[in-house]
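Suppose a colleague, Dr. K., hands you the sequence of a protein chain of 124 amino acids and asks what its three-dimensional shape might be. Before reaching for any lab equipment, you can write down a predicted structure in token form. Begin with the sequence itself:
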Amino acid sequence: MSVETGRTIADAARASGVSAYTLRYYERAGLIDGIGRADSGHRRYSDEDLAWIEVLQRLRATGMPIRTIRRYAELVRAGDGNELERLGLLREHQTAVRARLAEVRRHLAFIDRKISIYEETLNE
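The predicted structure, expressed as tokens, is then:
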């Protein structure tokens, strides 16, 4: 896809489900690198850029801190040879996500018990 035919920031925002402001922030924060530019200077997003934005969204949605995502992005951009460090970052995050998930399940079990108590009381 040529730079001139890539998606505008508005189109990329619609396609990715994040705002244009967020896309600009991702660039400033060092999470996205190498976004193409049209002759006019406007950003042009490729399919690869959108795929990377999806990675960023998923990492953020699971609570990965921006600084960790930035480090992961740096490692990916550096290319082959650092897979062990990437794996370490992801495994560490996986452990944290699993711990939060277990906590949420405990909270949900509490709510389920409370609902059962109210339902039993109302059915008597």
